Amino acid sequence: MAAEIVDWYQSEVPAIVPDAPAVSEQVTSVEDSLRQVAHCIDTGDDPRRLDMTPSTVLIARSGVQRGIPLNDLFRSVRLAHEKTWHWMFNQITTSASTSEQSAALELATDYMFAYADRILVQAEHHYETEREAWLRGTAAARAAAVDDILAGTEADPQHASKRMRYDLNRHHLGATLWLDPARDEIEPQPALNEALSRLAVATSAHSALVHPAGSKATAAWLSRGQAFDPEELDIAHLSRALPDGVRLAEGEPGWGIGGFRRTHIEAGYAHRVASLLGERASAVTCYRDVAVAALASADGEHAVAFVKRILGPLAADDDATYRVAATLAVYLDENRSPARAAQRLTVHPNTVSYRVHQAEQLLGRPIDTNTLDLSVALALLPAIRGLADGGGAVAAAQPRR
Questions:
Q1: pLDDT at 371 (0 to 100)
Q2: pLDDT at position 393, please?
Q3: RsbT co-antagonist protein RsbRD N-terminal domain: from which residue to which, for each copy (predicted)?
């Protein structure tokens, strides 16, 4: 039911589920609330005395930081209330005896309206408390300046630097940090703050700027006066710097106000591709490695159809076939050198050659045919599961601009 309710949010109040992390947070929040309702009914507690679940409090507070109108949050509560009440109505009318239905429906109606009223009152309290603190702090002015830069309405680096109290005349590295969805036991903010601190050390950054991206994700910039060393941005190096359970997407480094904007947008696209990859994604996703997939997956349905048409049986979703396709992708990327491909894949060159032959058999044609289409389809292949299974919301989510 939680998943169905959040699916409804995507069509009715899309502002509260703008990206994959927000969808995941909402599913957790709604599920926690449904369990609270069920437990309260089971024990006979008074719904007027309940407190919002911690996950729902996080949604209310982060809504301020993400610029979500309070009316949209209220609407989401009413939609969840409506969906839950209809479910209870169907349960009662199909399972209760005729003599009990009237009383049961009256109890269910009174209960659900009391619960919804309690949640709305508390949501408003948490939202307004956070809003007052937000407006009082310098964070609001900084966030507004960042939003203007990303929207392209602030182009003066000196004026923007003054508004942000952050020097834009530097080299910037855009990053998006989030928690592995499977690691629910990790406290989000302490883990993300620790990860950002470690990344700053690993990249020898002189300063860092954080921008709200939800209760379980953080958008950030690392900056310094000198250009970033490619070795410091190596995936293996950055992976070692991350705490367990934290994931990173990074853009290409850029200088000045233009580079500040571009590297953030690229990190957002890398994050979207990592979300599509799911369990196939590594701890660190660099935009330069997934740029083709990011561009080609903008239309999810079209991308899936393209991959299946170009790859045919090579697009099968089993591990053995995927391993063959991944080997072919590396082989082509290494200018058809079995030795270099083998070094990247840590296998024997003969293994690379054998898998390339398998790929050609599955394709039913030599790999010299339609090489551009083939390379693009292979770049998209890791994301096809996410695009096909639930990529509608993920693929449609665009990096914040």
A1: 87
A2: 40
A3: 1-142
What's the full length of the chain, in residues? 401
| C-alpha span between 284 and 271 (Å, rounded) | 9
8 Å CB contact between 30 and 5: yes
Give the Cα separation of 326 and 183 in Å (integer): 27
| φ, ψ (nearest 5 deg) of residue 214 | 120, 175
Nearest Cα residue to 62 out of 246, 188, 213, 220: 213
Q: How far apart are CA 15 and CA 131, in angstroms?
A: 18
Burial per residue of 15-50, b for 16 or more beta-carbon CB atoms within 10 angstroms, e otherwise: bbbbbbbbbbbbbbbbbbbbebbeebbeeeeebeeb
SS3 285: strand
Q: DSSP character for 51?
A: -
Could you give the C-alpha distances from 17 to 32, 33, 59, in angstroms and in order?
A: 17, 17, 11
pLDDT in tens, 343-384: 999 999 999 999 999 999 999 999 987 789 999 999 999 888
What are the tokens at 122? Answer: 């508390």
Q: Where does the pLDDT of residue 401 fall: very low under 50, low under 70, confident under 90, or very high at 90 and above?
A: low
Q: Give dist(CA 169, CA 260) in Å, integer.
A: 9
Tell me which residue has tokens 């956070």: 130
CB 77 within 8 A of CB 89: no
Higher pLDDT pick, 66 / 8: 8
At a CB cut-off of 8 Å and minimum separation 6, what does 161 contact? 167, 168, 169
Task: Dig out the tokens for 314 from the structure.
Answer: 């090579």
The closest of 93, 67, 95, 75 to 13, measured between CA atoms, is 75
Specify whether the CB–CB gap between 387 and 307 falls below 8 A: no
The DSSP secondary structure of 349-383, one letter per residue, reads HHHHHHHHHHHHHHHTS-TTSSHHHHHHHHHHGGG
